[in-house]
Design a protein that fits this description.
Layout (H helix, E strand, L loop, with lengths): L18 H23 L5 H19 L10 H32 L5 H21 L2 H15 L24 H8 L9 H23 L1 H13 L5 H17 L2 H19 L3 H14 L10 H9 L3 H29 L13 H8 L3 H12 L4 H30 L6 H46 L1 H13 L3 H16 L4 H19 L4 H11 L11 H10 L3 H11 L2 H11 L2 H4 L3 H23 L8 H15 L3 H29 L1
Helix pairs in contact: 1-2, 1-7, 1-17, 2-3, 2-7, 2-17, 3-4, 4-5, 4-6, 4-17, 5-17, 7-12, 7-16, 7-17, 8-9, 8-14, 9-10, 9-11, 9-13, 10-11, 10-22, 11-13, 11-22, 11-23, 12-13, 12-21, 13-24, 13-26, 15-16, 17-20, 18-19, 18-20, 19-20, 20-21, 21-24, 22-23, 26-27, 26-28, 27-28
Length: about 675
């Protein structure tokens, strides 16, 4: 999930560490996962206990997996001493809250010197763990936020205040007040972002790890190939569908690219797609996995917490926008296949749906349990727990049936040595799943911890209101310009932040303005910001998913990123459609919702055709230009404009279809 797992290439690989260090990493990771399972399904813990223990374990893992001077480098005596010091800082700062929580609450703002010193150590430790796990960009923003809080006439760094523009000036705060906000309060490091990371996000990252360990990822890929492989551009269409499925498991665009892309990109190239097209299609499809219910890369949990809406409601309203996005990418793929005269793959080279379902149908059971329990309004954290129990139980039962009944019929009798090896292998897989889940959660949890620092400073200094007033001033009160500013801000933030952190920072800064000043419904404002926070995955110059796709495709990074940016245009257009047609999210008369949904899909299809210059056959330059006012009309919040735009698009599309029929007559 996040960035939730920002990459399947787990930091701290075996090549980087000695055997004792690997054992220690495994021990801490497994202990963290067991603690989370205990808190999720057996004995829920108090807010600060849960978050402080979780963060302590996460930081311990970060310092063990990621040496101070970077992966691949030996720690050395000095590096080992630094790592040990930060590891001790993680243990001390987490343990201090757990053992002194009642006394801290009783002091209620009258902090002791020990409280302040431990809080300073915690802040420094969080920033260093973030530098290693997330990157320098996130850490730099956290440091800038702290310096901003200390600047001002009453702050500990009053001289910094003179460099602040007038609209950003504030009174300034001392170290004691700042540490009280960041470490000892509920709006800092242990605020809402860490609360979501320590509960919902982790348990679903762990669920994804068990799905990966048991082979669910390959099942979804095979199923997508079986369903689409015989169509034109089959592997590319399979990439779109498989990435939608894998995105709901991995929670990371990068993880999605390197897992599904390892299969889909070579097949797309073999079919006739250019290397940069193959890498771009996979990057765009994988980015869509982050907006695909039910997990949405941990975004659904955060949106539910911020908007105080039931998690299931957030998931339900996100289905149609996700379908619109993937429909656009799918159409791009289909149009390119038509333009280049591609054919589908041979049937004998494809898996059959019946065979895939026969061998992997049990992977659908945990997902069914997950959806059913969510519909029953059970807590998402408890739902994740039962989903994990289900996937483990299903895997054990499936192997038991094979071992005791199917194997003996195929000449593999039940013997004590084979039973011992089976039990031992199963336990190893179980421990691997626990370890993988904890490792994959390090980056997103550290991003949420530093995001908590930023959110705490924003709340302390009132920066959010000031940023909102700046946004209103720069946009001149025009909603469209304000949304363009949000896109630009998300792109700049996305250069240094993972998606989850970018969303949290942006929603704190621009969310109030979108909702209060421009009248955008609260849920739509959050969805818009969350969608725009994805753009760093596919938007040059920092297109992380595009770069990953280019590495697998063997193409140049920038051309591949531009292709990904083109295919992912729905990432920018669908949020606009949500803003100007809010009924598809907040609801309304059934006829109006259906009309808006059909019109939106039609407009997105027209946009893809106009951009590619092809639909059923080649589009003339005049037709491509005429499609644009039709698209604008569909997006415009006026029924007359929508009807006129829809009619224009339909007429042009029908005309193109008739032209394709005339072209095919001589050939017939």
């Amino acid at each position: 999930m996040s960035e939730t797992a920002e990459s399947p290439v787990i930091p701290g690989s075996q090549a980087d560490h000695s055997r004792p260090m690997l054992w220690l990493i495994s021990l801490v990771a497994i202990a963290l996962s067991l603690f989370q399972l205990y808190a999720a399904g057996i004995e829920p813990l108090g807010l600060f206990y849960q978050r402080s223990i979780h963060l302590a374990f996460i930081m311990m893992l970060a310092f063990l997996m990621l040496p101070v001077f970077g992966p691949g480098r030996k720690r050395g005596l000095f590096g080992g001493a630094l790592d040990l010091a930060f590891f001790a800082g993680a243990v001390i700062t987490g343990g201090y809250l757990v053992f002194n929580l009642d006394a801290i609450f009783q002091r209620a703002g009258f902090w002791t010197q020990t409280d302040i010193v431990i809080g300073c150590i915690a802040t420094i430790t969080v920033l260093e763990a973030s530098r290693r796990a997330v990157g320098l960009g996130m850490t730099a923003i956290g440091i800038i936020a702290i310096l901003y809080a200390l600047a001002g006439p009453r702050g500990d760094l009053p001289w910094l205040g003179q460099f602040l523009p007038g609209v950003l000036e504030h009174r300034g705060y001392n170290i004691d007040r700042l540490v009280g906000q960041l470490y000892l309060g509920q709006e800092g490091i242990f605020g809402l972002p860490m609360g979501v990371a320590a509960t919902y996000i982790f348990i679903f990252v762990l669920f994804g790890a068990f799905l990966e360990i048991t082979g669910a990822g390959q099942f979804f890929i095979d199923l997508a190939y079986a369903a689409t492989g015989r169509q034109r551009g089959g592997p590319a269409k399979a990439a779109v569908i498989a990435s939608a499925g894998m995105g709901s498991i991995s929670g990371s665009a990068l993880a999605n690219v390197v897992t599904t892309g390892a299969f889909t990109i070579p097949l797309m190239k073999r079919l006739g797609y250019k290397p940069e097209q193959a890498g771009g299609i996979e990057a765009a499809a994988s980015t869509g996995g982050q907006i695909m219910p039910p997990l949405m890369g941990a975004g659904a949990f955060l949106i539910a917490e911020y908007t105080r809406m039931p998690y299931l409601d957030v998931v339900k309203v996100s289905i149609l926008p996700a379908v619109m996005y993937f429909g656009t990418v799918y159409l791009f793929v289909h149009i390119i296949a038509l333009k280049q005269g591609m054919q589908g793959m041979a049937s004998d080279k494809l898996p059959k749906v019946r065979d895939v379902m026969a061998t992997g149908w049990h992977f659908l059971l945990p997902l069914a349990v997950l959806v059913w329990l969510l519909v029953m309004n059970m807590s998402p954290m408890r739902v994740g727990y039962y989903a994990i129990v289900t996937i483990i139980s299903v895997a054990v039962l499936r192997f038991a049936v094979w071992f005791w009944f199917v194997g003996p019929r195929r000449g593999e009798p039940v013997t004590a040595p084979r039973l011992y090896r089976a039990i031992r292998g199963g336990l190893i897989r179980l421990l691997q799943g626990l370890e993988l889940g904890a490792r994959n959660a390090v980056s997103v949890s550290m991003a949420c911890a530093v995001a908590g620092i930023i959110v705490g400073v924003v709340g302390l200094t009132g920066l959010g209101l000031k940023f909102s007033s700046m946004m209103i001033t720069l946009s001149g009160g025009h909603l469209l310009l304000a949304l363009v500013l949000v896109v630009l801000a998300s792109l700049v933030l996305g250069m240094g932040l993972p998606v989850t952190a970018s969303y949290i920072v942006l929603i704190v800064l621009v969310g109030p303005a979108l909702s209060n000043e421009f009248g955008v419904p609260l849920l739509i404002a959050h969805l818009v910001v969350f969608w725009y926070s994805q753009d760093s995955n596919v938007t040059p110059p920092i297109a992380l998913a595009g770069f990953a796709g280019s590495a697998i495709a063997g193409s140049k990074p920038m051309p591949t990123s531009f292709q990904a940016w083109k295919f992912a245009k729905g990432l920018y257009l669908v949020p606009l459609f949500m803003v100007y047609n809010p009924e598809i999210i907040v609801g309304g008369p059934v006829a109006l919702v259906v009309w808006s949904a059909v019109g939106g899909l039609l407009a997105l299809g027209a946009f893809a055709a106009s951009l590619e210059g092809y639909l059923f056959t080649r589009l003339s330059a005049i037709t491509r230009l005429m499609l644009l006012p039709g698209i604008v009309g569909v997006f415009y919040p006026d029924l007359t404009a929508e009807v006129a735009g829809t009619a224009l698009i339909v007429v042009l599309m029908v005309g193109n279809w008739l032209a394709s029929r005339r072209e095919s007559l001589p050939a017939t």
